[in-house]
Design brief:
Elements lengths: L11 E7 L10 E2 L5 E2 L7 E2 L19 E5 L3 E2 L4 E2 H8 L5 E4 L8 E8 L4 E5 L2 H4 L7 E6 L13 E2 L4 H7 L2 E3 L2 E6 L1 E4 L5 E4 L8 E2 L5 H7 L9 E8 L5 E14 L10 E8 L4 E5 L5 H4 L7
Parallel strand pairs: 14-21, 15-18
Antiparallel strand pairs: 1-5, 1-11, 2-3, 4-5, 5-10, 6-7, 8-9, 8-11, 9-10, 12-20, 13-14, 17-20, 18-19, 19-20
C-alpha cells in the first residue's frame, strides 16, 4: 500500500446542475482540412457515449460522456464562482448523487473535467440517464484535493479521489512509481489547454491530425476513461514541455475536428523529474477499474 495523507484530507459538498448542450453564434465547426461541419458537442445527457467507449470515430466534436454538470452561481462582491469550486474540488472517482428530479437518490461517479466550457463529467448507469432532466441538481462529495504520496515527493497527484488511486494500484520501483496506462503519447502533439498556470481543473487535448504519429503510438483505439502517459510533459504548475518529465491523465472527452484539439486529458499524476514509469495495460480504464461497466 502506498503511504498517503488521506487522513488529513477534507471532504466537501459541491453541486452542479445538468448543463444544456450549447452552440456558439456560428453553427459550423471548421475542420483542420477546411471543411464546415455541423456536429454535436459539449453539454447535456449523452445517452450512448460513456467511459469505456471509443474516444474516436463519432460524428461529434468534444462530446462529453455521460452527464455534464455546471454551477451557475457566483458572488459579484468578489468575482468568485461556485463553478470554479465545483471544477477544482471535484476529483476523478468522487461519488455523485442526484438530489432533485425523477432520478433523485441515484449515484454516479465523476470521470472527468473539461476546461474551456468548465464542465464536470459524471457517469451514471443507463437507467438513471433515462430519468435525468436538464437542470437536475447533482451533489458531488468532493474528496482528494491535497492528496500526496508521502514516499514519492517528486510525483504530484491531483484531481483524484483516494479510492481511484487505490484502484489504479501503482507499484513502487525504488524511487519511481510504475503506473498502468493504455497508451503513451508524445508531448509534441498536445494542444488546446496549454497555457494555464494550473492543472487542478480542466484538461488538454491530444491532437490526432498526423497519421504517422497516430500509427506509431497506436492512438486510433483510445477510449474515454483510458489512463494515458504523456512523455516529456510536466503538469506541476500548468502544462509545459520538459524533456524527461512524465504525466499521467485520463481521457475525458471525444476527438475533435477543429485545429489544435482532440481527445482531452485531465491530469492525475505528474513528475518533472521523470519518476513515473508507464506500464502498458489495455485494462487501465476507469470503467473496469471502478466497475462502472461489465460489458467491456
Amino acid at each position: 500500500m502506498l503511504k498517503t495523507n488521506v487522513d488529513k484530507l477534507v471532504k466537501l459538498s459541491v453541486v452542479g446542475e445538468v448543463a444544456s448542450p450549447i452552440f456558439g453564434r456560428g453553427v459550423y465547426n471548421i475542420s483542420a482540412e477546411g471543411t464546415p461541419m455541423v456536429l454535436p458537442g459539449v453539454g447535456g445527457i449523452t445517452y450512448n457515449v460513456r467511459v469505456g467507449d471509443p474516444a474516436c470515430g463519432w460524428e461529434a466534436d468534444h462530446v462529453e460522456p455521460g452527464v455534464s454538470i455546471e454551477n451557475k452561481e457566483n458572488d459579484p462582491r468578489f468575482g468568485q464562482s461556485a463553478n470554479t469550486a465545483l471544477n477544482v474540488l471535484s476529483c476523478i472517482g468522487n461519488e455523485a448523487v442526484v438530489v432533485s428530479g425523477e432520478a433523485k437518490g441515484a449515484k454516479g461517479v465523476v470521470t472527468g473535467k473539461h476546461g474551456g466550457i468548465e464542465h464536470v463529467l459524471v457517469d451514471f448507469q443507463p437507467d438513471v440517464l433515462d430519468k435525468l432532466m436538464l437542470g437536475d441538481k447533482i451533489l458531488v462529495k468532493a474528496f482528494g484535493v491535497g492528496l500526496k504520496l508521502l514516499d514519492f515527493p517528486e510525483i504530484k497527484v491531483m484531481n483524484m479521489d483516494p479510492r481511484f488511486l487505490e484502484a489504479i494500484n501503482p507499484k513502487s520501483k525504488k524511487d519511481k512509481l510504475e503506473i498502468s496506462v493504455t497508451h503513451v503519447v508524445p508531448a509534441s502533439i498536445m494542444g488546446s489547454g496549454l497555457g494555464s498556470n494550473t492543472s487542478h481543473s480542466g484538461d488538454y487535448d491530444i491532437q490526432l491530425f498526423d497519421e504517422n504519429t497516430r500509427r506509431q503510438y497506436g492512438l486510433d483505439d483510445l477510449r474515454l476513461g483510458d489512463l494515458v502517459a504523456i512523455l516529456d510533459a510536466d503538469n506541476s504548475y500548468g502544462r509545459i514541455y520538459k524533456q524527461g518529465a512524465v504525466s499521467v491523465g485520463i481521457v475525458v472527452h471525444t476527438n475533435c475536428v477543429t485545429s489544435g484539439h482532440g481527445p482531452g486529458v485531465t491530469t492525475l499524476f505528474t513528475s518533472s523529474t521523470g519518476k513515473i514509469i508507464p506500464k502498458i495495460d489495455a485494462k487501465a480504464n476507469i470503467a473496469p477499474l471502478l466497475k462502472l461497466r461489465t460489458d467491456i
